[in-house]
Write a sequence for this structure.
């Protein structure tokens, strides 16, 4: 019986019992091997006021102080985005990590349009991906994914709640990117204040209907703690270390004591890192592709089709015209390359033949010269031999004459 009915989707699915091992269980390993071979890409957008601790948190999260921590100026007339890409490796896993940091967020007098540049950046990365997908000749697997997979939104540790500008920015971002809220520099807030602060923020989020990223629950990861009960994560970052019982520990030292970054009694940092690395990196990539990018893609395709249906078919027609143009140029370039390769090859062979001919000719010349020399030598030897023969005959004749003289004398 056919498993698939012709064109009408899946028909009856028959369960087949295998009579022995055929190796199907290696499929997950094949997938794992391919993933390790291809490496991973992850892009983090850090949104927060200047000096709120964005770069320091990246150093702490990935346990490396080589992340760019150059302080940005507080006097930017407008918001900027700073993008840095790093290559990280742990055992046999490679990660290409891009960190996009806001520069001068909230430093301007008119904070109203602060978020527009961030929204545009996220959309531009979606558009870049969409253009690749729409190409007739796509290279999705080698195409670098620049889409933002998570946005760390840093809330100033005011102890009160979200600012108006936070609400406006979060509202414009929440359906475009996975948002994780962080209470920055949480070491300066008291424990009770922090609880109330978190409550206020969550109430405001609910009131404003702002959706933040929902961490998948995995019993093994936090041992039963519900990740979304911790949010917003009160974090502490540091680039300093202290030696504790022979172990170098990331901390912040104050005149009154020491705060350890990875101590869960001091901050939620360790929860954030565990959740992010152990259960959410891939989930965030999937959500970005399946939810946020999908939404963008649908909107863009609808926009293209609508303008096409309304008679303004410039966008789609233009797109396919460009594609056709690109293909024609590509074909032309390839043809040209083939032709020039062929000409080059023929030229090279001709040169090789000429070189070989020259070599043969010089070889022939040297052999010919050698033969002439040998011939001359032989001629000389022949002449000498002939001379020797003549001299020998003369000597023989002289000795014969000498023998005949005494016999005559005796007569
Ligand atoms: P720009 O890139 O200039 O906008 O700054 P940033 O947001 O990247 O902040 P950065 O990480 O450079 O930190 C700025 C200052 O805040 C540094 O002096 C850090 O040591 C300090 N800092 C960072 N994290 C924390 C924290 O958790 N608590 C406290 N108290 N200070 C912090
Ligand atoms: Mg920075």
């Amino acid at each position: 019986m056919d498993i698939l009915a012709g064109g009408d989707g899946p028909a009856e699915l028959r369960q087949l019992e295998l009579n022995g091992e055929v190796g199907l269980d290696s499929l997950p390993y094949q997938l794992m091997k391919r993933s390790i071979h291809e490496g991973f890409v992850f892009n983090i957008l850090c949104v927060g006021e200047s000096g709120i601790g964005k770069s320091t948190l990246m150093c702490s999260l990935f346990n490396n102080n080589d992340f760019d921590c150059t302080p940005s100026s507080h006097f930017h007339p407008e918001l900027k985005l700073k993008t840095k890409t790093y290559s990280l490796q742990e055992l046999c896993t490679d990660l290409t990590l891009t960190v996009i940091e806001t520069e001068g967020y909230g430093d301007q007098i008119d904070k109203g349009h602060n978020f527009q540049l961030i929204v545009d950046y996220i959309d531009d990365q979606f558009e870049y991906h969409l253009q690749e997908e729409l190409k007739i000749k796509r290279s999705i697997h080698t195409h670098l994914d620049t889409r933002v997979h998570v946005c760390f939104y840093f809330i100033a540790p005011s102890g009160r709640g979200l600012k108006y500008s936070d609400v406006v920015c979060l509202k414009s971002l929440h359906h475009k990117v996975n948002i994780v809220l962080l209470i920055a520099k949480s070491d300066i807030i008291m424990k009770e204040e922090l609880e109330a602060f978190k409550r206020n923020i969550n109430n405001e989020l609910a009131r404003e209907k702002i959706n933040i990223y929902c961490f998948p629950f995995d019993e093994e990861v936090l041992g039963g703690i519900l990740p979304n009960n911790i949010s917003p994560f009160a974090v502490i970052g540091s680039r300093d270390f202290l030696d504790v019982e022979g172990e170098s520990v990331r901390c912040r030292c104050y005149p009154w004591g020491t705060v350890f970054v990875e101590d869960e009694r001091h901050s939620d940092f360790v929860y954030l890192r565990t959740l992010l690395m152990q259960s959410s990196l891939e989930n965030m990539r999937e959500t970005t592709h399946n939810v946020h990018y999908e939404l963008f893609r649908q909107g863009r395709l609808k926009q293209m089709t609508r303008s096409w249906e309304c008679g303004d078919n410039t966008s789609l027609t233009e797109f396919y015209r460009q594609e056709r143009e690109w293909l024609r140029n590509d074909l032309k370039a390839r043809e040209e390359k083939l032709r020039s390769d062929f000409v080059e090859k023929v030229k090279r062979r001709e040169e090789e033949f000429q070189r070989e001919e020259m070599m043969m000719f010089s070889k022939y010349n040297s052999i010919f010269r050698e033969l002439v020399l040998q011939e001359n030598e032989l001629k000389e030897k022949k002449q000498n031999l002939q001379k020797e023969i003549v001299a020998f005959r003369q000597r023989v004749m002289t000795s014969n004459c000498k023998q005949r003289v005494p016999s005559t004398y005796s007569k």
Notes: The first helix runs from residue 27 to 38.
